[in-house]
Amino acid sequence: MMAFELLEPGSLEEAIALIDPDDPEVRPIAGGTAMMLMMKAGVFRPKRLVSLRKLGEAFTRIAAASAGELTIGAIAPLSALEHSPAVARGAPVIVRTMRRLSNVRVRNVATVGGALAHADPHMDLPPVLIALGATIVIAGPSGERTIAIEELFTGYYETALAKNELITQLRVPAQGKTRAVYFKVTSGSADDWPSLGVAVALHAEGKMVKSARIVVSAATTKATRLKGAEAALIGTGADDKTLKKVAEAAAEEADIMADLRGSASYKRELLRVYAARAVRSAMQTSGAH
């Protein structure tokens, strides 16, 4: 790697001021798990990195409001989500997802905000957060704004973040009796990058589905809601006939991409199978579990 300058601001305002939106060789860095790989490979050669590690406890804190909403600091490591009692109570599907995300060494370093800002379509967390209706708080020179996670990802490794904006907080709304699951399909070990990810969060009264979010990732250029598949599910009892319709709608709707983990036709068939399995599993899950 080439030499670079590392700055460690002590405040959010200072960090934002140090990020030059017109200089692509200046970047913020949190955990740095992806950044270091790109630098070692020579894909990215920064002249200055602005570390966010010293911004303070507010940016690593995980808290739950009395109503059940979770607020998670953007610099909290992924392992903090995995072991947080508040997350386990409010959105246990996140905890289950973390246990199969890469390995413990990565989870101990990679941060929530960094993972989201990197926008790798193979990441496990984005589809789950979209399914849960999560939002993020973004700070920049003009102040703060809040957007839904599903609006953050605009394309392949692309986000709606301005070059001098930083994610400061993740907010997961109270889930109540939401039933949520995440399925990943890998060609390697269970914690490998997935060929396909499917997240489902639904609310049912008895056997009747009242609302649903179905999200696909890894097989697409970004984590994407499948609203046609959702429409095929809402208002039904999720029987075998309905699940087949949901699966077909998902496979038809998703804009599948081929990569080293599988052809487009292979991934489309995976989606057809796992969309139905994920919905069935969610229906069999009790409450927010």
Return the CATH architecture of the largest domain.
2-Layer Sandwich
Record field, number of beta strands: 14
The spatial strand order of the largest sheet comes to: 4-5-10-6-7
Strand fraction: 25-35%
Give the class from helix and strand content and strand pairing.
alpha+beta
Biggest β-sheet description: 5 strands, antiparallel
Task: Provide a count of the helices.
Answer: 12
Summarize, please:
With 289 residues, this protein is an alpha+beta fold.
Write structural notes for this entry:
The chain has 3 domains: 5-51, Uridine Diphospho-n-acetylenolpyruvylglucosamine Reductase, domain 2, CATH 3.30.43.10; 57-172, Uridine Diphospho-n-acetylenolpyruvylglucosamine Reductase, domain 3 (2-Layer Sandwich); 179-283, CO dehydrogenase flavoprotein, C-terminal domain (Enolase-like, domain 1), CATH 3.30.390. By secondary structure, it is an alpha+beta fold. The chain has a 5-stranded antiparallel beta sheet. The chain starts with a strand and ends in a 6-residue tail after the last helix. The chain contains 12 helices and 14 strands. The protein has helices at residues 12-18, 33-40, 78-83, 85-90, 92-98, 104-109, 112-118, 125-131, 149-152, 227-233, 240-253, 264-283, and strands spanning 5-7, 26-29, 48-51, 62-64, 70-73, 135-140, 143-148, 153-155, 158-159, 166-172, 179-186, 194-205, 208-217, 224-225. The mean pLDDT is 94.
